[in-house]
Q: What sequence folds into this?
């Protein structure tokens, strides 16, 4: 019997599912690395220092997983920076309004 070739749509679906599974596995690995690295840095003082071969250990135990997470979710970083900038703008406007009110009362 002749073999049926899978349709391009089914191949694409299987490929997308494989990529999704790989991304989920990567997320789990990075979160586990971050959690275990944080616990290790907190409870093992020797891991807070510098190693001649590896470098600064807290970077590799905490910083690198955080950078990986930010690289996997750039939209979250953009949303966070936008919220921070909006908050700064609102605080500056509130301070300038208060200063204007103080200057108004100085005149009288």
A:
């Amino acid at each position: 019997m002749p073999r049926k070739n899978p349709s391009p749509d089914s191949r694409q679906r299987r490929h997308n599912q494989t990529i999704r599974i790989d991304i989920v596995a990567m997320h789990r690995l990075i979160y586990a690395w971050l959690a275990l690295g944080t616990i290790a840095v907190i409870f093992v003082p020797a891991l807070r220092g510098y190693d001649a071969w590896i470098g600064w250990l807290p970077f590799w135990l905490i910083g690198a997983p955080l950078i990986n997470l930010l690289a996997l979710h750039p939209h979250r970083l953009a949303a966070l920076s936008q919220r921070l900038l909006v908050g700064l703008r609102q605080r500056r406007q509130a301070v300038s309004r208060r200063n204007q009110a103080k200057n108004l009362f100085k005149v009288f």
Summary: The beta strands are 50-51, 55-56.
